Amino acid sequence: MKKIAFIGAGAMAEALVKGLIAAEQLPAEAIWLTNHANEARLQELHSEYGVSITRSRTELLRDAAVIILSMKPKDAEAAMLYLKEAKLKPGQIVVSVLAGIHTSFLEKYLPEGQPVVRVMPNTSATILEAATAVAAGVAAGSYEMRLVSSLFETVGTAVQVEEEAMDAVTAISGSGPAYLYYMMEALEEASIQVGLDAFIGKQLLIQTFKGVAKMLEQSDLTPAQLRANITSAGGTTAAGIGVLEEQGVKAAVQACVHAAATRSKEMGQAFTK
Ligand SMILES: NC(=O)C1=CN([C@@H]2O[C@H](COP(=O)(O)OP(=O)(O)OC[C@H]3O[C@@H](n4cnc5c(N)ncnc54)[C@H](O)[C@@H]3O)[C@@H](O)[C@H]2O)C=CC1
Ligand SMILES: O=C(O)[C@@H]1CCC=N1
């Protein structure tokens, strides 16, 4: 691929840029970024990663195989007007990482037949460990889906889904890292409360998280079975899990995922009116 253009230069764009450069998929200067107004932010990304930055729409979009929309959903309309006026070349693929926003909303601003692909990555793209789901808009065929999937596979794993699944995907793997960081925050604080040195507690917790993810990946057992294997009758784990059950933590986690999925739906509906 010759060139990727990002419209929006925030946290998600930076995670993807960092991952793409680390994966050595294309030279840093073939990654182009623009944003709304923050020139200092663009300069910072240029100095840090060697990416190309521009305020010129023509320069940004010229020869870009893929154009990644990476602004907040509230700014989608302005960005689509910017693209509408740009008159894209047929075949330039518009990729959206925007939570909630349907491809049908984006397609309204583009010439008929312009391929649009909706993706939901997560910030672990930074370290090439993103979990990404990819869904086709009406004009995206297998060539575009393969190209976009392989782009996101360079920064982790990518699965293709129907667009209806995107609210659920967003609630699970898009927002998911934040739930796990929240859990990590609570465990870090608790490790200090029970008397561990903060640094040692953090190292033990990081390895514990890594071990759990690898066990789930490599074993045929379910999370419930793996948990049962650790829980001796009358032991420490039973004492801890008993409190989680009493406090309704499983129900709270499920309510959290439902709330995120509902919010993703609402965000989509706000843009279809
Ligand atoms: N942060 C995350 O973990 C994830 C975010 N997303 C999606 O990524 C998108 C971006 O999120 P963040 O990077 O966290 O936001 P952010 O607020 O960090 O960055 C947004 C960027 O867009 C720029 N911008 C706004 N309007 C613009 C316009 N009209 N033209 C050009 N640039 C414009 C802003 O200047 C800023 O650089 C959101 O739509 C979000 O739903 C998706 C997956 C995960
Ligand atoms: O919070 C959000 O809306 C975005 C989408 C997934 C992760 N962050």
Automatic annotation (TrEMBL):
Residues binding NADP(+), per UniProt: I7, G8, A9, G10, A11, M12
Pathway(s) annotated for this protein in UniProt: Amino-acid biosynthesis; L-proline biosynthesis; L-proline from L-glutamate 5-semialdehyde: step 1/1
Compartment annotation: Cytoplasm
Family: Belongs to the pyrroline-5-carboxylate reductase family.
Function in brief: Catalyzes the reduction of 1-pyrroline-5-carboxylate (PCA) to L-proline.
Enzyme Commission number: 1.5.1.2
Superkingdom, taxonomy of origin: Bacteria
Keywords assigned: Amino-acid biosynthesis, Cytoplasm, NADP, Oxidoreductase, Proline biosynthesis
Limits of the Pyrroline-5-carboxylate reductase dimerisation domain: 163-267
Name by which UniProt lists this protein: Pyrroline-5-carboxylate reductase
Lineage of source species: Bacteria, Bacillati, Bacillota, Bacilli, Bacillales
Sequence ranges assigned to domain Pyrroline-5-carboxylate reductase catalytic N-terminal in this UniProt record: 3-100
GO-annotated molecular function: pyrroline-5-carboxylate reductase activity
Biological process, per Gene Ontology: L-proline biosynthetic process
InterPro entries in alphabetical order: 6-PGluconate_DH-like_C_sf, NAD(P)-bd_dom_sf, P5C_Rdtase_cat_N, P5CR-like_CS, P5CR_dimer, Pyrroline-COOH_reductase
Known catalytic reactions: L-proline + NAD(+) = (S)-1-pyrroline-5-carboxylate + NADH + 2 H(+); L-proline + NADP(+) = (S)-1-pyrroline-5-carboxylate + NADPH + 2 H(+)
CC annotations in GO: cytoplasm
